[in-house]
Amino acid sequence: MSAASTSLRAAYDLAGKAVIVTGAGGGIGRTTAELFAAAGAAVLCADISDGAGETAGLISETSGQAVAARVNVTRQAEVEAMVGMAVERFGRLDAIVNNAATISTQLTADLEEAELDRILSVNLKGVFFGCKAAARVMKAAGSGSIVNVASSAIDLALPQTVAYSMSKAAVAQLGKCLAAELGPHGVRVNTVAPGFVITPMTSRHFTKADGSIDEAKKRQVIAELSRGLVLPEPTEAEDVAHAILFLASEAGRQFTGQILRPNGGISMPW
Ligand SMILES: NC(=O)c1ccc[n+]([C@@H]2O[C@H](COP(=O)([O-])OP(=O)(O)OC[C@H]3O[C@@H](n4cnc5c(N)ncnc54)[C@H](O)[C@@H]3O)[C@@H](O)[C@H]2O)c1
């Protein structure tokens, strides 16, 4: 084997490493957990839903190493217990992907305080709790990678997503501040800001009450959310998972405080 291919394998090899993925019960989180397991990592799949167990089951079926935890990321004690469980089960924590989130699609004038609190609790406080609990362990270990999932909503001005967009912009800023804090301790912090991906979060816009898909509505939603896309193909969960894996692995060792945008060119900031 050439030196280049040895270096390539080592850069993405997560054998012997341990990773937490929140919101791993479906969508981008499930795909990310599966990709990390395929790269050799032991994965703690965390979710508020039964989906965490299903994802861990899927990984185990392919001989990967995974455990599931039911975690509500809005509860700091549960997030701390999740990090403790990873360290206890795997003996270490190399990366955490703070991916769990929820969305609200109301006009600002109609957005009730309780709904604003709900979105900020999951999308911002949940990510903060994950960062805080993982930072303690990683700082003590002198290494680690935190990847937070934001959205291209941080670059675009999308109507009817004010709570979601605010929470995601705050997540991006959290990543930069924390990168500056933790960099000297060997811990990297980055953000992935995906474009529109069909997942349970987005497909509910065109799913009928009986669970079937409204194809006309689906085409309309995809057309609306893909406006401005430069590439011909839409972004898929795998594209996001690959960006996350890059940032969490040795290949991304010079990346910290950065925002990576797997979004088909829908936004192109500096
Ligand atoms: N799908 C998209 O188009 C898109 C675009 C940009 C960014 N994102 C971001 O990607 C991430 C994943 O989104 P997705 O589309 O896969 O969504 P999804 O709804 O399919 O998955 C989100 C997961 O988070 C879990 N979750 C929700 N609240 C939780 C809580 N309080 N505690 C623990 N788990 C909780 C859900 O049960 C679900 O399994 C999110 O951060 C989302 O904002 C998605």
Low-pLDDT segments: none
- CATH level-two architecture: 3-Layer(aba) Sandwich
Oligomeric form:
single chain
Number of domains: 1
Radius of gyration over all CA atoms, rounded: 18 Å
Give the CA-based shape.
globular
Assign the CATH class.
Alpha Beta
Note the beta-strand portion: 5-15%
Task: Give the class from helix and strand content and strand pairing.
Answer: alpha/beta
Termini Cα gap: 38 Å
The biggest sheet amounts to: 7 strands, parallel
Helix content: 40-55%
Q: Count of DSSP E strands?
A: 7
Summarize the entry for a quick read.
With 270 residues, this protein is of the alpha/beta class. Helix content is 46%, strand content 13%.
Task: Report on this structure.
With 270 residues, the protein is an alpha/beta fold. The protein has one domain (3-196, 236-260): NAD(P)-binding Rossmann-like Domain (Rossmann fold, 3-Layer(aba) Sandwich), CATH 3.40.50. 46% of the residues lie in helices and 13% in strands. It has 9 helices and 7 strands, in the order αβαβαβαβαβαβαααβ. Strands 3-2-1-4-5-6-7 form a 7-stranded parallel sheet, sandwiched between helices. The longest helix has 29 residues, at 113-141. The termini are far apart. The model has no long low-confidence stretch (mean pLDDT 96). Nicotinamide-adenine-dinucleotide is lined by residues 22-23, 25-29, 47-49, 51, 71-74, 99-102, 122, 126, 149, 151, 194, 196-197, 199-202.
